[in-house]
């Protein structure tokens, strides 16, 4: 949190193909609404919907634009570099990252992977040292609201949890908490959603 200004800058990232009707979107928005209602400091919210404003797959041309000094870029390279630069700046200015994460075919949405590919930048959000990579976005918190049709938490089929922990730690975000809403395609959907909302209260207590 920005101690000097006592402002919590929150970035909400969603990627459900169902948009506002997606379970991960609904629950992540509810979490943020609760956070704003309970917080003792001002909450500034920035929302990014990766399904509505989808990012294309990363290309060599775009990566090459990053690696070209700003004063040597062509107009086309500047436009390509601006995509990642703006996303990185958005994340750098964030205190609390909230991710609404649906599960598609045992993995993360491809649009979210395209976002990761642009915010993981050598020399900007992480650096290589003799001891290995070191994340540069320290002091931030991340809350993952994971919505799944089946029951996967704690099983080998949950490919998301470890991946998200690893990739966020790679850029320096190691304070990561998960809220699971599972079995949403099963008869006990409402009961499972209630359980997820109760888990929200526990996470909120740790944030406030």
From TrEMBL:
- Entry keyword Oxidoreductase: yes
**Originating gene:** azoR
Residues recorded as binding FMN, renumbered to this chain, are: 16, 103-106
Question: Which family, according to the similarity comment?
Answer: Belongs to the azoreductase type 1 family.
A UniProt-annotated Pfam family:
Flavodoxin_2
- Co-factor binding comment: Binds 1 FMN per subunit.
Question: Locate the Flavodoxin-like fold domain: which residues?
Answer: 9-201
This protein is called what? FMN dependent NADH:quinone oxidoreductase
EC number, as in UniProt = 1.6.5.-, 1.7.1.17
Q: Report the domain of life of the source organism.
A: Bacteria
* Keywords, ordered alphabetically: Flavoprotein, FMN, NAD, Oxidoreductase
Under the heading InterPro entries, the entry gives:
Flavodoxin_fold (IPR003680), Flavoprotein-like_sf (IPR029039), FMN-dep_NADH:Q_OxRdtase_AzoR1 (IPR050104), NADH:quinone_OxRdtase_FMN_depd (IPR023048)
State the function annotated in the UniProt record: Also exhibits azoreductase activity. Catalyzes the reductive cleavage of the azo bond in aromatic azo compounds to the corresponding amines.
């Amino acid at each position: 949190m920005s101690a000097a200004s006592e402002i919590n800058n929150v970035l909400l990232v969603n990627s459900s193909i169902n948009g506002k009707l997606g379970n991960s979107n609904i629950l992540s928005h509810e979490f943020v609404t609760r956070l704003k209602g309970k917080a003792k400091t001002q909450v500034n919210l920035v929302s990014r919907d990766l399904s509505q404003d989808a990012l294309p797959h990363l290309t060599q041309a775009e990566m090459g634009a990053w690696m070209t000094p700003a004063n040597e870029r062509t107009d086309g390279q500047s436009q390509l570099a601006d995509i990642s630069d703006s996303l990185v700046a958005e994340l750098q200015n964030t205190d609390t990252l909230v991710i609404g994460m649906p599960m598609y075919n045992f993995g993360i949405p491809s649009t979210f992977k395209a976002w990761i590919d642009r915010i993981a930048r050598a020399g900007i959000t992480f650096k290589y040292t003799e001891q290995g990579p070191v994340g540069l976005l320290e002091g931030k918190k991340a809350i993952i609201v994971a919505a799944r049709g089946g029951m996967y938490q704690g099983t080998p089929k949950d490919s998301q949890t470890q991946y998200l922990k690893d990739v966020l730690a790679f850029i320096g975000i190691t304070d990561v908490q998960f809220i699971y809403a599972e079995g949403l395609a099963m008869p006990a959907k409402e009961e499972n959603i209630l359980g997820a909302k109760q888990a929200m209260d526990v996470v909120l207590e740790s944030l406030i």
